[in-house]
Amino acid sequence: MTLGIAMFFAAGTRFPSLTKNKMKTGRLSCNATLPCILLYLLAGMPSALARVTPPTRDPQAPGFVAATQLPDGAIPPANADGNFIIGPTHNRAPEMTTNNPAGTVYRFTMSSEDSRIYPGIAREPNTYGTVDPTDPAKMVVTTSHPAHYTRHVAVYVPPHYVPGTAATFIVEADGPDPALFAALDNLISQHRVPAMIAISIGNGSGDGQGSERGLEYDTMSGLYAEFVEQEVLPLVEKRCQVRLTKDPDGRATMGFSSGGACALIMAWYHPDLYHRVLTFSGTYVNQQWPANPKTPHGAWEFHERLIPNSPAQPLRIWLEVGDRDLLNPNALRDNMHDWVVANENMAKVLAAKGYHYQFVFARNAGHTDRAVKLQTLPEALEWLWHDYQPAR
Questions:
Q1: pLDDT of residue 136
Q2: Tell me: the pLDDT tens digits for 76-96?
Q3: Candidates 3.40.50.1820, 3.40.50.1240, 1.20.1250.20, 3.30.70.2190; correct CATH number of 69-384?
């Protein structure tokens, strides 16, 4: 540890000021000094060795958005915009109890060999990127190469779907996800959301810079939405014998972590295709690779520049973060790798631009926390579709 501390200071990394009870930087507040120090020390180590517990953040800390503190166990109303704090008890919502969907679930695979847009890449096992010596916010990856993948897709078709009807639908990253199908089964039967098809798409494997998943989900462009539109949805219509609506107000995206960033990226770059976005622990941080000079800070650009400096898009956005969500788990020392701060900033800029959004800060919750998902997903879906009026 002594050697590590010496190397840390010798590298010239700016160390936050310490107080008696907490460590602060311009962007974060930690209530545990030692975990924060460890995060900084281990940030440059391979991810497999850097799994330390993130510090617990206080949602009422200075600089965070003003939010309504709900009673423990309660969730926000499905018709209210704004910021809410839940927890620390996360009981499974009653709508999540169905394990055998009444709707029909179709499954199929897609091969990289058949994709024009994503022919496949992978990073060599046990290799990691390094920081560009000319730009501390840029990751250099030299061990990524072409590679084959097989993608799994699951499609939920609700009961009583009428063949030939243009169906409302939601596209989910990192599928397949039976929990989504269970929630929709109950919500549709209770007429709390429109009868919709759910298309839960597996990623192309790997994680982070240099991987297929990272390329698909963290790239700031319309490419993944175009891949779904051109290569996935036609297969869904053909194999499941359904017709999908072209109305962007009847289309939603959903994801967790980088899949959450992807959900917003799809709608941001293609509001002609999607108007509704649902994200848990969205990776609104600097994780894009390869680098793009138009968005040099990756998805951090959403709250840093894109949303504040652009006309409001016709988007409705639900987002969540946990108090123990991720903090700087890689080698970049760029102050753009705090998931809590990133999502807090998202809430700020969405409010300032007048978006319809609901932000949930979950106490006693980690990154893409399963208990939080099972507690909040039904309400999130209901809020997401609250104002929906089918096209006539």
A1: 84
A2: 999 999 999 999 999 999 999
A3: 3.40.50.1820
